[in-house]
Amino acid sequence: MPAKQYDPLPGLRGGKNGHTERNSTIPPCTLRTSSRKNRVTLTITRRDGLVLVAPEYFDTSGVPKILERRTEWILRTIAAMQAKYPDFDPWNPPTIPPLLDLRCLDEQWQVDTVFQSAQKNPALRINAGHRLLLRLQEQPDNDQSDADQKPIGLTDANLETTRSLLNRFLVRKAKPILPDILAEAARETSLHFSRCQIRTQSTRWGSCSARGGISLNAKLLFMPRRLVRYICIHELCHTQQLNHGPKFHKLVRQMLPEVDTLEKELHSAEALVPRLLA
Ligand SMILES: [Zn+2]
């Protein structure tokens, strides 16, 4: 999907170069086109901020009007997300997290970043003492005329590379541990699964197939262990009930009488995943 950055309402643009000011009312909007869409939708995601998804061949001259009409909703949604996610900042792209706090393993990994020549491939080195060394390709110097307008940021390519290198690290850390937590939960509940896969989905903690295969999100490592166990039991209950109907909820409650507390905890624990990896 091609993405394009749009400044907010022309009337709200500020700065001598016409760039968006940090404190303008509406954050920059990313425009994506999709051949499967037949109408415009506006969303705000933790990672990408304000995003407008439009049908292909959409007339972009209408964007400022749409944003103007939805200003109240945009500001309300941003305020709600800022309350939930302390690192939420729709005015700026995500940053590299300096620390990965893997609560499930009780391990904290420091992330250091170096820039090397563009001839070398980006890589992530795992060093002793729970230190990660991220080697990224040198990026072009930031435009100096921009310096007073925007914080020095990473190129989109470097952010994308970082995301995939860190996700790969998480999968590698998760493989020896998450299937064990699932197996333990299966023993405790006498529910069975056929196989366990580890992935890095962006919208779900886990899923269960009709054949009883369970897939778990490697980002669960950021959660405390009791919440990982809760997700495992939720997915195991799907081996009996594939939907989220009353029978499913009854089964979960039978296995976990404290499910309401866990559900609330899980909701706020989403903020434990760094924004770049959300
Ligand atoms: Zn479910």
The gist of it:
By secondary structure, the protein is an alpha/beta fold. The protein is built from 7 helices and 11 strands.
What does this protein structure show overall?
- This protein is of the alpha/beta class.
- The protein has three domains: 3-84, no CATH class; 99-170, no CATH class; 178-277, 2-Layer Sandwich (Zincin-like), CATH 3.30.2010.
- It is 31% helix and 22% strand.
- The protein is built from seven helices and eleven strands.
- It has helices at 63-69, 71-84, 156-174, 178-189, 225-238, 246-255, 259-269, and strands at 3-6, 29-34, 41-45, 49-55, 99-102, 107-116, 123-127, 131-137, 195-199, 206-208, 213-217.
- The protein has a four-stranded mixed β-sheet with strand order 1-2-4-3, with helices on one face. A four-stranded mixed β-sheet has the order 5-6-8-7, covered by helices on one side.
- A hairpin with a 4-residue loop joins β10 (206-208) and β11.
- α5 packs across α6 (246-255).
- The radius of gyration is 22 Å and the shape is globular.
- The protein starts with a strand and ends in a 9-residue tail after the last helix.
- The site of zinc ion (ZN) has 3 residues, from α5.
